[in-house]
Each structure stands twice: as C-alpha cells, then as structure tokens.
Amino acid sequence: MDATPLLEVSNLSKVYVTGRGLVGRGEIRAVDNVSFTLPGDKPTLVTMVGESGSGKTTIARMILGLTPPTAGTIHYKGRDIWTMNQQEWAQYRRHVQAVFQDPYGTYNPFYKIDRVLELPIRKFGLASSREQARELANEALRAVELRPDDIWGRYSHQLSGGERQRIMLARLYLLRPQLIIADEPVSMIDVSLRAAFLNILLNFEQEYGMSCLFITHDLATGYYLGGQIIILCQGRIVEMGSMDAAVHNPKHPYTQLLVASVPPPDPKERWQEDFDLKLSELRRSPELAKGCVYRDRCPVIGEKCSDVPPTMVTVEENHQVACHLYV
Amino acid sequence: MNSALLEVRDVRVYYSSVRGEYKVVDGVSFDVQRNEVLGLAGESGCGKSTLVEGLLRLVVPPGYIKSGEAISDELTKDVSNNCDLLSLTDEEFRQIRWKNISYIPQGSMNSLNPVMKVEDQIMDAILTHSDMSRQEAKERVAELLNAVGLPAGVAGLYPHEMSGGMKQRAIIAAAIALKPKLIIADEPTTALDVSIQRMILQTLKRVRQAIGATIIIVTHDMPVHAQLADRLVIMYAGKVVEIGSIRHLFDDPLHPYSQGLIATIPSITKQRRRLQGILGMAPSPLEWPPGCRFYPRCLSVTEVCKQEEPALREIKPGRFVACHLHR
Predict the structure, then answer these.
(1) Residue A242: CB partners within 8 Å, gap ≥ 6?
(2) A193 vs B281: CB contact, 8 Å cut-off?
(3) CB contact (8 A) between residue B194 and residue A271
(4) Containing H/E element for A215?
(5) Which of A90, A156, B20, B244 has the most Cβ atoms closer than 10 angstroms to its Cβ?
(6) Which residues of A fall below an 8 Å CB-CB distance to B?
(7) Domain count along chain A
(8) Pairing of strands A96-99, A7-18
(9) Could you report the predicted ipTM of this complex, rounded to two decimals?
(10) Contact status of B153 with chain A (Cβ, < 8 Å)
C-alpha cells in the first residue's frame, strides 16, 4: 500500500489579467484555490463537473503541464510537477495521458491511423519486432472493441467520431498510464456510441488500475461512471465526495440546481413546476470573489455569503461541501 | 378542421458531389398536427437538420430538393393557391417566412448581430415581415421579452452583454414576434449549460401556451423530447424508422434502432447499470446499404432485412414503424 497520493492538487489558482486602459485593469480568477487528491493506493475515477467557464479545462491543462498555475502546486506521487527534472518529467508525460474533446482535431489528417498506434510503440520501445508491434496494436484495438481490419490503412476522416475517440483509448491501452485526464471526451460523439467509450474507461480502471480524471458538463454521463465527483462553480470547488452522495443527497444549492436541471428521460416524469432561475447579475469579478461565488444566483443567500468565501466542511463520510449553510 | 397543419410527403434532399449523390434525406413522410410539439430525433448525420432546412427552403447548392411535397393550406393561404411549401415561388415563401413559419436555427444565439441592440434586431424582423409601425413594434418587443422571461432592460443590451441563456431567449422572442403558426427549433438547448437548458425548455413550453403555436423541435437529445414533445419522429439514415406518441415510444419502442436509442440514455435517478450502446456506425449517405438501412447494426436481423427495404406502416392507430419484425 502506498499512502502517497497519485495526484495532489493544492490551492491551485489561475488568474488572467484583462483589460488595461479605458476598461481598467481587471482580473479573472479562472481557477480559485482548488485542492483535491486522487489516492495512490487504488485506482479511482473522479468526475469533475462544471458549466462553461467553471475552470475545468484550465485545471486539466495545468495538470498536464500545458498552462502554468498562478499559485498552488500539483504533486504527482509526491513530486511537484513544476520542479521535476527532465527524466522525471519524461516519466510523468508517459504516466499521465490526455484525451481531449475534439475527436477530429487530435489527428493529423495526412497520416494513416496506423501511425497513431505505431508511434508510441516505437517511441517507448514497447515491442522488439515489427510483428510484435503489430500484434500489440491489434490487441489494443480489440481492447477498445474495434476490429483491427477495419482500422489499418485508414485515415482519420474515414472513421466516425466514436471510433476516433476509441483509438485514443487504444493508445492509452498501449501506454498503460497511471492517470488519464479526459476532457469532455464524449461530448462530440453520438449517445449510442458513448456507452462503449465509457465502458472502456471503466474496464481500464478495473482491469488495468488506471485512474481517471473525467471532465464533463454533463452530470448524467458522470453519474454513469460512478466513483467520485468534484463540482466546480466559477473556478471554485463547491462540493465533492462520492458520486452517489452528491447526486442523491446534494448539499450545495448549486449542486441542487445542477441535479434538478438534468431532464428525467421519461415522459411520465415531466417537470411540473416552473423553476425560477435568477440570471447572474454579477459578472465574474474581484467583487464576486470576495464571498461565495454562487451568491448572486443562490436562493438561500445569508449575510456572510457576500463577505466571506465559504470553506470546505465535511458533512458525512466522503462528502464535503463549501457553503455557509453547513458551517 | 381535423386535417394536419402540415403533411410532409416523400421529401428527398440530396447533395451532389464529384463522388456521387449524397442522399441525406431520402423519402421522408409524416404529418404535423395542429398545436402539437413534434419531436424529430436521430443521431448526427441522420438528416434531421437537412430535412427542416428543406422544409424552410434553406438548402443551398450543392444541395437541392430532389422531390417531395410539404402540403399546408393554412400556412400558404395568404400568399398563393399553391399549398406546397416546396413549390411556392421564392417571393411567396419570403412572405410567409417569419409570419407563418419561424425558424430557430442551430447555434442561432451566436448569430445575433454584435453591433446592434437586441431591441433593434427584433424590431428589424418585425418591420420587415409585417406592417406594424415603429412604435407598435417597440411595444411588441417589450411584450415579447416579458413572454420569454427576460427583464425589460435587456432590450437595450448588446449581445456581448448577455449570457448564452439570455441570448437564446432573445432568439425565441424574435421567432415568436409575429405569432407564427409553426415554429421550427433546431437543437435549441444544445451547447447551453444544463441549468440554462431547463430554463429554455420552460420558455418553449410557455411560449407554446401563450401563442398556441405548433412546434417542431429537432434534437438528438432524447431527454429533451421526453420533457417537451407530444409525438416523436425517429429518423435513421435519411429515413423515418418510427413515429408514435412520446409515451408509446419511450415505454414500448418498436424499431430496434429506437430501442437502442432509448436504452442508451443515461439517467441519474434509475439504478446504475451498464449500457450497451448500438454497435457499429451509421452508414454513409453516399451509399446506403441495400434493404433495411439499419440491418448492419441490428441485433434482430433476418435474411429479408438485407434485401428488401421495409416500408413505413401504421401498425396500430398513430404508430408507424418501418421494420420487417412488425408487419
């Protein structure tokens, strides 16, 4: 048992400075003091849910080392990723792999799909001969439920979105990363093909011990995966813990709104009452950051909410919330 | 009057290319009843958006309407003796556009003119398509904003000052400006945050009650149909595979494709279970498979399915299905 967390994100912030001159200098806190960990002793699936502008992609980019944070640290197996030496960094790049949203944009249209699979095998020396390489690639394709004969020799535009995303997973199968960062990987593929993709992620976790940080705006997709959940609102974590606890017993008013906004897929369970949603009046601003970021839309706003940012409290085992209602 | 508002008969919309003809919509027939919300469902590439573009005469070369009729007395009687939307002259169709039929295109909230105030944009539409005075039009805009639940102050805002949900509601306000008899909305909730989606669905329900319009809502998102539609038309590979009331379709889908579509909807209330999805991928509109277009992916395939294309038949009152299993 290894008690060192696989990934430990501490007080991570990203601030973008905007507008100089007439509009005045402003700053946008895209990610604001975010902390969470993925355990090192067992594979874990963590779904990060947030609406557009909640900072979820910025967090993914910082973990992948694509965007430097303004403050805070990211430790991978106890090592700060921004102070790693070259060798550690190379390891990290192999152990932490990404799957992005756009199944069209990740491929070079001039190369056959073969290259996507052969490159990592060659680069990381996974096979000792051409035949072995081909056999390994075939095994990877079968692991993601693709028929190798349908794939070899084809170009990315000849495949469907679901197939392209699964080939990214076949790459992961070859590399066996410890952690997959999946940023909205199913939002551009058809619903009937999503299940196949999600099932593979579940298999990867259960059979090969790969952890995954799954980023989505779609609570229903996250719920399907189970595991843990982190809910982001305006760059801050408002609630986290086990998926079931957060979805069936949501504590934060924002989580309650998210859960209530998922349309029940059944014409017998139509929404009856109209739901009064306040439109956000406060723009994202240093003003908003002074208190709870959800206060301008919150139906139960109290006195403290505009002045003091709520801290994370534990409401039950494996369920935490940042809201003044629960202090 | 018991007849349908609109009878769509054997509509075909093709695109010509050097590789041949893309038969994107390939013989679609259904009725649209007065005052109903008709859902048009199916996955990307099934032809649902192209079909409504055809009905609205918005297909541009290399696309063209190969054949078919869209018969409606009520929508055409002010301008012509000809009651086929597809064979009206362009000028005749221009006269009924917006006034009798309005359209909310996919992603239209991003097509607001950035340098015009919302009020002026909606007034523009009103003044172009009716003989209201400026003053009347201005008052009408205030009513409309109220009808879609936007505060009156929104009238003076520019699009960049509004959130996605506000813009989408402004678009709906514009679409209902002249109390059209038929509103066609293409993916009105896609690309919006979930909480905003719920607000837009509420707005559409409210608008329908307020002006008594018939609505065709096009989306791949089955839970949206479950919430809003009275009847559902399911398309696959350029054809209609099933038509029925929303209750019937969700409780007892007949076509194997409809069954797959409904079985793959993730839910946050039902017991979590592994979903299977639909195997394989949709065929290309350049060369549809012979026989039933779904047979390569169908689990109940028989010999006849590979040879003979099943016709859409009414097997019970109001229930149409195109499948050899149901003759």
Answers:
(1) A227, A228, A229, A318, A319
(2) yes
(3) no
(4) strand A211-216
(5) B244
(6) 51-52, 160-163, 190-196, 198-199, 217-221, 223-224, 226, 247, 257-271, 274-275, 277, 279-280
(7) 1
(8) unpaired
(9) 0.84
(10) no
CATH architecture of residue range(s) B6-34+49-90+230-321: 3-Layer(aba) Sandwich (3.40)
CB of B258 within 8 Å of a chain A CB? The answer is no
Of B246, B247, B277, the CB nearest to A196: B277
Chain B CB contacts of A280 below 8 Å: 163
- Give Cβ neighbours of residue A107 (< 8 Å, ≥ 6 apart): A113, A116, A156, A164
Q: DSSP code of B66?
A: E
From the list B163, B222, B219, B210, the residue with the least C-alpha distance to B186 is B219
Residue in B150, B194, B201, B248 to test binding to A, most A beta-carbons within 10 Å = B194
Report whether pLDDT(B17) > 60: yes
User: Which residues on adjacent β-strands are paired with residue A26?
Assistant: A18
Report residue B243's pLDDT band, with 50, 70 and 90 as the boundaries.
very high
**pTM, 2 dp:** 0.89
Helices (H) and strands (E) in chain A, counts: 11, 12
A89 phi/psi in degrees, rounded to 5:
-65, -40
Of A190, A221, A257, the CB nearest to B266: A221
Ranges of each domain in chain B: 6-34+49-90+230-321
Residue B242 has pLDDT above 80, yes or no: yes
State the burial class of residue B78 (Cβ atoms within 10 Å of its Cβ: 0-12, 13-18, 19+). Answer: exposed
The residue type of A61 is: R
CB contacts, 8 Å: B43 with chain A: 190-192
